[in-house]
DNA sequence: GAAGACTGTCAGGATCCCGTCAGGATGGAC
DNA sequence: GTCCATCCTGACGGGATCCTGACAGTCTTC
């Protein structure tokens, strides 16, 4: 889950942000001043920071500097000042975006999504693991016991269609249209063929599959 | 030098931006409408795009979509509309920042710096090494056993497209749009040709490549 | 117990894909 | 104009991939 650190000294703003963020599925942690912000950031390692510039004690610019000394997590600055000098200072100090109060919640959330989208491009690849098999969906790569296994395009599409819905039954019709495209709903012999191929390459005992199960008369199921 | 693509149909804004950008050491190229923007972006491969939303003919949102189909270069949107709906739409379509007109030049430049900083900072791989080959992405330079190897522009773009995603499969479609620009998705003979050229120049045994692997039916992969 | 439906397996040929080569087109340097 | 590098198109052979059809085994149903 994506974790957001909200730094502001006004409780009502913190509460409003937290409610909206949680409603959208983010995990929220908070800090009331600059010192606490640096502490919480180091302890909880949020994916993004929303930082009010008008903080007591420690100046907002210094908080940015304190964060940038050891991390490049995205920082979105909130501020009541709309003069460009403050914006330039904050951005050049290392902030990634600058929103002036009062702000629209929709816009703030959209800017947050934009920042996160840019950052997750380099994140670790999502992978599905079961038994000795590891399926790296982002890299389009399959390994068994660390050794790479070569899959043909059709085998890969079928594997993807199964693995993307763990535990769920996928009907023959669904699999056929997903792998071979619409119009191939009757080529069930094909499905059996490639299913066997997948099991031969990925199952320990292809005759008695543990992960790629058959629901007779219905379809197949990936059981991790 | 950092290259900026400015897209706007109002000449005075283009000129003002170009003057300010050049004064700060950027290289500037321009486009007057959406179609030209996509064309220039593919041909010149700018480091960042400044895009006016109020374009004739092709809608700004569609331009964002057209760019995001094959590149993730930063996009800064300019717009006369300040209502949050347009901001949200543009940001969710793939824009990285949204500035409403009239804008302060200082602020715009600061936002530009912030975007560029993020992009070059996350990169952190100015050079890639594998076997006897060293690819210097920053300097556009390739050496094998210390000796410089000359690459043509197309060869270089292909190498870059592969090397920037180590281990990941890159589909033929991805490579074609990234190297030749959108609209060249069917020129697969080309891809094979330049792939062979790259292997001939960089692989020890071009017939049995170790780093530039092919996944039949899917695409190619750089394996360091 | 028999019939039918369903699944897993095997083999064979058609098709597609990849690497390679040659040749023409384009554009810039001199 | 000539030379040169680069880019693109088309064609060919070898190999991998895909599809079709047939057969045996298993389970359900009558």
UniProtKB/TrEMBL annotation, chains A, B:
The keyword Repeat does not apply. Keywords: Cytoplasm, DNA-binding, Phosphoprotein, Transcription, Transcription regulation, Two-component regulatory system. CDD domains: REC_OmpR_KdpE-like (cd17620), trans_reg_C (cd00383). One of its GO terms (molecular function) is identical protein binding. PROSITE patterns: OMPR_PHOB, RESPONSE_REGULATORY. One of its GO terms (cellular component) is protein-DNA complex. Residues 125-224 form the OmpR/PhoB-type domain. The modification 4-aspartylphosphate is found at residue 52. Gene3D superfamilies: 3.40.50.2300, 6.10.250.690, Winged helix-like DNA-binding domain superfamily/Winged helix DNA-binding domain (1.10.10.10). Residues 3-116 form the Response regulatory domain. Residues 125-224 bind DNA. InterPro entries: CheY-like_superfamily (IPR011006), OmpR/PhoB-type_DNA-bd (IPR001867), Sig_transdc_resp-reg_receiver (IPR001789), WalR-like (IPR039420), WH-like_DNA-bd_sf (IPR036388). The keyword Repressor does not apply. PANTHER family: KDP OPERON TRANSCRIPTIONAL REGULATORY PROTEIN KDPE, REGULATOR OF RPOS. This is Response regulator. It comes from Nocardioides iriomotensis. The lineage of its organism: Bacteria, Bacillati, Actinomycetota, Actinomycetes, Propionibacteriales.
